[in-house]
Amino acid sequence: IDDREVNIKRPNLRIGVIPAGSTDAVVYGTTGLNDPVTSALQIIVGESLLIDIATVHNEKGFVRFLATMLAYGFFGDIINQSDKWRYLGPLRYDLSGFCQFVLNRSYHTELTITLSPHDSSQMSREGTMSSSSSTNNTKHEDHGTQPTELVNASKSTENKNNQVIQNLIAPALAFCSRNCEICALANEHDSGKVRSSLQIKRQGRYTTINCLNMPGRCAKSKFGMSPFVHLGDGTFDLILVKRSWQTGFLRFLWQVANDGRSIEDLPNVERYRVSEVLIHPLHT
């Protein structure tokens, strides 16, 4: 289990969750509400739903399992500080959140991101099309293509490249639920078949880096931070919030609270559908 390259075998184990916590993110993400009676009845009748469980490793080996969200930066600092104020009850989250917002910390970080196989193959196909288009444009230029045609060809290539980036940042927007077709296809996939994945690198100062296996819905976030993440397709959503003025980060928090479906429209936010991410803090 200390080797992050090893795929952990799926256990034949069912876990029933009845909401009784501060946010109830697991129940919100799987049933859509945090009603204890509803959850108890679903357990009694035997309803089940496959969900992804990720592993977290550091340089020494395995750290813990991840079911909902891993946060580095703002939200991680909130949890760390609120644990010292447990005697305040749920109010501790609001107080520690306010303190961290005032501090407005950011962390210089390098990320190695392994995109989900679907996004990787899509980028490879469209990238090949763009390269072929560029080659053809060069040939036409040798045969006396007019300057206006070159401009149009250049714009066409640029549009295709922009579309590739958009597909990576904003994957297919569809709410995940029981009997989800995308998750079903992932579960039927032959584990012996090798699927190529594309790795990209990002570096900069980030206010928060979030990995979400579930939408992250709760009473204070109607749709959650990542409403369209799939619960059982072997991937998770990576959300990067770049350093900005407090007003910029406040817009992000407001968007998460009110409508997380479009947070990637903010200029300081990037969203990726990934299968693995390596977070390397740079102490500068």
TrEMBL record:
Residues 120-134 have a biased composition (Low complexity). GO terms for cellular component: membrane. Residues 117-147 are annotated as: Disordered. GO terms for molecular function: ceramide kinase activity. It comes from Adineta ricciae (Rotifer). This is DAGKc domain-containing protein. InterPro entries: Diacylglycerol_kinase_cat_dom, Lipid_Phosphate_FormReg, NAD/diacylglycerol_kinase_sf. GO terms for biological process: ceramide metabolic process. Residues 1-60 form the DAGKc domain.
